[in-house]
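Review box. Two proteins, two foldings.
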Amino acid sequence: MKNILITGFEPFGGEVLNPSWELAQALNGEVIADARVVAVQLPCVFGRALERLDEALVRVRPTVVLAVGQAGGRCDLSLERVAINVDDARIPDNAGAQPVDEPVVVQGPAAYFSTLPIKAMVAALRAAGYPASVSQTAGTFVCNHVFYGLQHRLVGQGVPSGFMHIPYLPQQAAHHPGAASLPLETLVAATRLALATALTGQEIRMGAGQLD
C-alpha cells in the first residue's frame, strides 16, 4: 500500500499543545484514496526537526508528504507556496536556539516551491465549505526550516510535498483573545479532503483573483 506522510510539531512558545500534531495524530492510520496515513511528530528545534524528517522519509517511503504547522493568528488552512533558505527566529526554538539570517542549507537555492497541487487543494476545500487560501510566506521559523528542508531532500524524486499552516484550536484561542481558531474535527475533515486532492494531482484552473 502507498503511504502518505503527515508531520506535526510538538508544542512551542508556551503552548501546552500544537494543533498540527493533534491533527496528524487524528489522521494516523487512516486510508485515503488507497494510501495509508503515517503521522510523525517533529521537534520544534532547528536541525533536529530535519533529522527526524529524514528518518521518517526513509522509513515511510511516502507517495505524498504534507508537513503541517501552527500559525496562531491565521484564520484558515493556509497552503504554502514557497519555502526560503533562511532561518531567522523571532523567538528561541525548544532547545533555546535563535538563529538570525542563517541558511537552512548552506549554498542551497534561495527558495523552493511546493510540489503539491495547492490551488486544486484550496479550491476543493473552499467548494466543500472550509476556509482555505494559498499563502505566500511560511515565515522564517522552524516551519519554514522544515518546509525548505523537505523540498530540498525530495528534489527530483517525484514525490509531491509541501507545507500547510493551520490556526489555533479553540482551547488555545481561549487564551489569546481575538485570535481565530478551528475545531479539530473541522481540521481533520478538511485535511482529509486536501490529501485526497493531492493524491489525484489535478490542478483546477481558476480565473485571475480567485485564488490568492
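Next protein.
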Amino acid sequence: MHKIAVISDVHGNVTALQAVIDDAHRAGCTDFWFLGDLFVPGPGAHDLLALLDALPITTYVRGNWEHGLIETLDGEIDTGDPSDIYEVIIDDYVASQLTAAEIMRIRQLPLVETPVVDGLHFQVSHNLPTKDSGHTLQPTGDQAAFDQLAGDQADVVVYGHVHHQLFRQSQAGQFIINPGTVGMPFPHWSRFATDLRAQYAILTTHGPAMPDVDFRKVTYDAEAEIALARSRHLPYADLYAQQMRTGAVHTHDLPVLEQATRELGYGPRLRAIIRKYPRQ
C-alpha cells in the first residue's frame, strides 16, 4: 500500500505549502507527487524548493509558471502585455533567490511522468501531457477532452492547473483526479467563495484495485503569509494580500495590473530586467 500526497499549484505560498506538508505527514503519507506551478505570485522561491526537497518526492512535473519563469530568463518578454510584465517582475524576484543549479533543475522538469505504483499505471501532468497551459480541462469541460487526456494506457490520470478539486472518469472507466491548489483557491460558486483553505489530495493504493481518493482542505494563517510577503518586499504585495484575504486573483486582470505597475513605478525596474535577460 502507498499513501501518496498529490500537491499542485503552490504559486509562491510558503505558509500554505508548509501547512499541507504538515497535514500529509500527520495523515501518514509515504510518497509525495508535485504537479507544478511552484512559484508566483507569492513570496516563496528557494525555500519552497527546500520544503519539497525534504520530502520523499517520487514524481515532479513542470507547470506553466515554471515555463513562464524560463521564458523570462530567456528574454521572451512581451512589454505590451500587462500580465506578462507582472509575471516578469515577479519572475525576476524569484530568480534572484535561486541558484544556477536550481534554475537548471527547473529547465529540465518533464511535462509528464508515468509511474507504476502497486501495479497501477498513473499518468501525471500539470495540464495536458504535451502542453502545460490551456483551458481544455476545466471541471465542467467536455467529456471528449478528458477521454483524450486519459488515452488508453493509464489506470489513473492526475493533473493540476485548473485550481479545482475534481474526480471524474473517462468513458472507459479510468480515474481522472485533480488535487486542487495549495496556494491559490478561487471557488466559482458564490457560497464557497470565502473558502480559501489550501487544497491537495491523498491517493491510497491497494494493489491493482481502485485507489482511495481523499480530497483535503487545510486551514493556514493567511495573515502570516501576507506579513512574509511584505517583509520580503514582494512585488505587487498589495495584490497578493488581497488574494490571500478575498480570493481575488489578478494574474490576468489586465486593467488592474497595468494600473498597479504604473502606480508602483515599476517602469525602470522592467527596463533593467529586459537588459538583464537578453533574448536567447
